[in-house]
Amino acid sequence: MTNQFPGLARGPIDHNASSVINSIAEAGIDMGSALILLSPTTPPGEILPRVLEASADQQIAYGIAVGGDTDGIYGDGSASTDDRTVAAVAGQGVVVVTQGRCLARVSGVNVNGVSTPILIGDDLTVSDQGSGLLVAATIGTDHVIARALQGVEGAAVDVIAVDVQREGRFA
After folding, report:
1. Is position 23 within any domain?
2. Angle in degrees, CA 75, 25, 67, rounded to 5
3. Domain count of the fold of the chain
4. Residue 136's domain spans which residues?
5. Do residues 23 and 49 touch, judged by C-beta distance below 8 A?
């Protein structure tokens, strides 16, 4: 699947139905990456929350990066090799969708390393196959952050539209 929203450069797909917050990047963050919240103690007195790309199975994602001070473009879903697809670098502001529709980086390889196509309506969770990627969730095991609004064939890494709802874990 190719990005069906090539004109969307930043922000959620629908501003009226989305919750967007500002935060601070702990390290480089790609556009469309799933993010986790970090401890609010570093540095002391900082007002905005610190975020980092999610990178491990079972991490509870906070939201999806949709912009920032560097404000790159949505790439092909792969990790950035230069600053074109970076939302923010360490210490810069990053814009995060915590609820609503936006573009996200996904992989067709699930948390067990198995090629699993993402279908429209699939629940998505944090991947351990690459920083900031979402994959198809296993209900009862994984924390669901979003639902796929587009599909991904095979083991492809891509950018698709998702509906972020942070539903948690279901048995």
Report:
1. yes
2. 40
3. 1
4. 15-168
5. yes
The CATH number that applies at residue 147 is 2.40.300
Q: pLDDT 10s digit of each residue in the chain, 171 long?
A: 556 666 677 788 887 778 999 999 999 999 999 999 987 656 677 788 899 999 887 788 899 999 999 888 888 778 887 778 899 999 999 999 999 999 999 988 776 677 888 999 999 999 887 789 999 888 888 889 999 999 888 778 889 999 999 877 764
**Any domain includes 163:** yes
| 29 in any annotated domain | yes
CA-based nearest residue to 161, from 147, 150, 146: 150
DSSP track, 107-156: ESB-TTS-B--B-TT-EEEE-SSSTT-EEE--TTTSPEEEEESS-B-TT-
